[in-house]
Amino acid sequence: QLQASGGGLVQAGGSLRLSCAAAGSIFSDVTVAWFRQPPGKVREFVASITSSGSTNYRASVKGRFTISTDDAKNTVYLQMNTLSPEDTAVYYCSARGLLGRGTLVTVSS
User: Fold this and answer.
1) What is the rounded CA–CA span in Å between residue 53 and residue 69?
2) How many angstroms separate the CA atoms of 50 and 85, rounded?
3) Are strands 103-108 and 8-11 parallel, antiparallel or unpaired?
4) In the prediction, which pLDDT does 49 show?
5) Could you state, in chain order, the average pLDDT of each consecutive group of 10 residues for the chain (109 residues)?
6) C-beta of residue 49 within 8 angstroms of C-beta of residue 68
7) Which candidate, 73, 100, 95, places its Cα nearest to that of 7?
8) What's the pLDDT at 106?
9) Residue 19's pLDDT is what?
10) In sequence order, what are the beta bridge partners of 73?
């Protein structure tokens, strides 16, 4: 029901925009979040956005990443700027207790 896309290989300092598409209005009236799992590490919170538009970010991405939604397209975005190798991970979106299929982001130094 949730499918993340937009990952890839990028050099340090570069940008990527991840998208998470949902079947139906799964993002309506709930908090939506992005998580990531770096290689060999546990999954960690990245960012979230409530139905009213309030956002919350992991400290290490604050000021570099932006979460947003497009309700008409049932899509959530994660704009990632000034990427560093520490951002390398599989990124997942989550809503209503569901965790979508991830997309791999690799940042080279």
Assistant:
1) 9
2) 28
3) parallel
4) 96
5) 94 98 85 97 97 96 96 92 98 92 96
6) yes
7) 100
8) 98
9) 97
10) none
Q: Residue 25 has which token pair?
A: 């209005």
Write the single-letter amino acid at 32.
V
C-alpha to C-alpha distances, 2 to 11, 41, 45, 62, 99, nearest whole angstrom: 27, 23, 17, 24, 7
DSSP string, the chain: -EEEE--EEEETT--EEEEEEESSSTTTTS-EEEEEE-TTS--EEEEEE-TT--EEE-TTTTTTEEEEEEGGGTEEEEEE-S--GGG-EEEEEEETTEE-B-EEEEEE-
Task: Quote the pLDDT of residue 73.
Answer: 83
Token pair for residue 12?
A: 């340090």
Backbone angle region of 8, left / alpha / beta, with phi > 0 → left and psi within -120 to 50 → alpha: left
Structure tokens at 96: 């209503």
Amino acid at 86: E
Residue 1: per-residue pLDDT:
82
Q: Residue 100 has what pLDDT? A: 87
